[in-house]
Write a sequence for this structure.
């Protein structure tokens, strides 16, 4: 017996046996889950979930649903991606209603494309449910808009490590430094020193503002405001730990005016410094 979502004015899809729904769980705050993902939680027989999603979301699933952890964290023992994908195939072929729940958006540096490809190759029907990616939603919770008409007309999203966990050599950092006014880096904390050096060598201003957001959208979220040349040292000094999303560019300065969580808590607005030069590193 399943309990599909029932809200007026919408025809919510039913999860059929043998299907896999590949859903994004958002950056952390359970309230950022989409209604389609909530609908999947209320119907799934099996939920295969990642390390980077908020486990509180699992409380919204049916009590009898099986929960399978399939988290992958850099430098720690974890399941191989191929094994996870084939496990989804096996679960679907066994007639289960399978929810694959991934942090953020499954198609934004989340290996969702690889999993969907494997499922389709094995004849398993798939439904894709996008989620709010940390590079947009997480930064918004920090008061950093990835676009602002007065600041930027371009934004680039890039991963901070490759398949082997190294700084991605396939990225043309010099071209990126010139092409994108705002650069959003996922999973880049470990290699931020090398990345910053590459961007500066490519012509990026060493004083370019940088925002580092950890535990984005959660109650223990921290935000470091620094500059490109100082980012690595300031991250170390602040003892920040991943997961984190890093934003490079003048959009970070908008946080001085748009730190809505601090304002809601009674903080006084800060004076917006359009250049951001010489400002000390700040963690909030």
């Amino acid at each position: 017996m399943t309990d599909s979502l029932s809200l007026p004015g919408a025809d919510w899809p039913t999860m059929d046996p043998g299907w896999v729904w590949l859903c994004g769980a958002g950056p952390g705050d359970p309230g950022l889950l989409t209604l389609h993902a909530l609908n999947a939680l209320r119907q799934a027989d099996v939920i295969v979930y990642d390390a980077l999603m908020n486990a509180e979301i699992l409380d919204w699933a049916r009590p009898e649903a099986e929960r399978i952890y399939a988290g992958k964290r850099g430098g720690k023992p974890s399941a191989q991606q191929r094994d996870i994908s084939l496990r989804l195939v096996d679960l679907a072929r066994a007639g289960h209603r399978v929810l694959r729940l991934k942090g953020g958006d499954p198609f934004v540096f989340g290996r969702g494309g690889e999993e969907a490809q494997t499922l389709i190759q094995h004849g398993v029907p798939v439904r894709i449910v996008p989620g709010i990616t940390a590079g947009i939603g997480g930064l918004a919770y920090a008061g950093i808009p990835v676009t602002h008409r007065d600041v930027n007309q371009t934004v680039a999203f890039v991963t901070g490590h490759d398949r082997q966990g190294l700084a991605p050599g396939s990225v043309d950092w010099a071209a990126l430094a010139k092409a994108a006014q705002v650069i959003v880096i996922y999973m880049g904390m470990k290699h931020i020193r090398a990345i910053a050096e590459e961007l500066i060598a490519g012509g990026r201003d060493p004083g370019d503002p940088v925002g580092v957001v950890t535990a984005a959208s959660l109650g223990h979220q921290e935000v470091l405001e620094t500059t490109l040349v100082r980012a690595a040292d300031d991250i170390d000094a602040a003892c920040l730990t991943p997961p984190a999303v890093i934003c490079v560019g003048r959009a970070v300065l908008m946080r001085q005016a748009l730190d809505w969580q601090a304002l809601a808590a009674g903080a006084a607005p800060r004076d917006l410094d359009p250049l951001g030069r010489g400002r000390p590193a700040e963690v909030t």
